[in-house]
Amino acid sequence: MFRSSSLVFAFTGLVSIVNAQSAVSGTWAQCGGIGYAGPTVCVSGTVCTFLNAYFSQCLPSDSAPSSTATSSSPGSTSSASAANFWFSFGDSYTQTAFTPSGNPPQIGQPLGNPPYPGGTTTGGPNWIDFDTVTFNTSLILTWNYAYGGATIDASLAPPFAPTVLSLTDQVNEFLNGTANKPATAPWTNENALFSIWIGINDLSWSWWQTGDRLAYNDVLLDAEFALVEQLYAVGARNFLFLNVPPIQRTPYFASLGPTNVTGPILESVIEDFNTKLATAANNLTNTFDDVQTFYWDSYLTFNEILDDPTAFGFTNVTTFGSAPGLFWGNDNQGLHPSSAAHEIFGQGIAAVLADTIW
């Protein structure tokens, strides 16, 4: 099955969720924290438990830590056995600075380490933070292997520094660790989701290459889906793919000026990559009849917001910083969306995943 969603559908699908949670937060949902504007009262049988300045969560009364997240037992198999698992791969749009060797995701620390929202590029929660603790309908434990600056494979598109972990490196981290289903992550075919948001750095740093640039997209995607097949081989069956946003519209690329050739060339390269990504994701279900794929169209979503920002609560989409109303965050580059933008992304992605265990 292949599922896709535009932003319009995303908001439509979430109306009932938002209305239902307007009075109380459900089990495992967020109920407080810096920047949080939702309900602070938890559903009966749960306790709004302070975990850190950014995050309080509605935890079942019999599993809430006595004080803070650090007081819960790392790796508790009782918490893990009741969870759904999310294994995430990507770049700076997804990163939370998770370290696989640190504390694992668990009740009270659903993204493991560092404490929620982690090391993001937004100045606050990003989309996977929101989908793990705000738009979730079950206990989700998220292993987020995403790494800032990542490309699909360093041998195809070298990252800005040799220490950056590519998608290939990230998948290998998973295969050499959590793929083995330790007590902290007893995931199964049914209760695990694998998401990949990659390609931004591959395309933004290679648009200028000579030769058949669109054929190079095929090379990149062949490498990505070879990794997907490795994930399938160890039991992955549910995949979420996110395409490349219109990064030619970021303040950074816009600052290069209207006569710069980057924008039009980059736009055509991204659109070609995204078309081929959607085809490859759809073909995955034809190759493996036990696979379910989901697809979130970030390119469409970004363009909808950037074309009509006030409709989405933004007052400025051309500059970046930490002021309210800005679509682009304070990253000193003008390349990354703000936390407010990521909340909208999280809503859209949650709608794509609607009617699943997530």
UniProtKB/TrEMBL annotation:
List the Gene3D superfamilies hit by this protein, alphabetically. Answer: SGNH hydrolase (3.40.50.1110)
Question: Keyword annotations for this protein?
Answer: Signal
Look up keyword NAD and say if it applies: no
The organism's superkingdom is given as Eukaryota
Cellular component GO terms held in the UniProt record? extracellular region
> Which residue ranges are recorded for the region named Disordered?
99-122
The terms under GO molecular function for this entry are: cellulose binding; hydrolase activity, acting on ester bonds
First and last residue of the signal peptide:
1-20
Gene Ontology terms: biological process: carbohydrate metabolic process
Q: Which Pfam families match?
A: CBM_1, Lipase_GDSL
CBM1 domain residues? 23-59
List the protein's name: CBM1 domain-containing protein
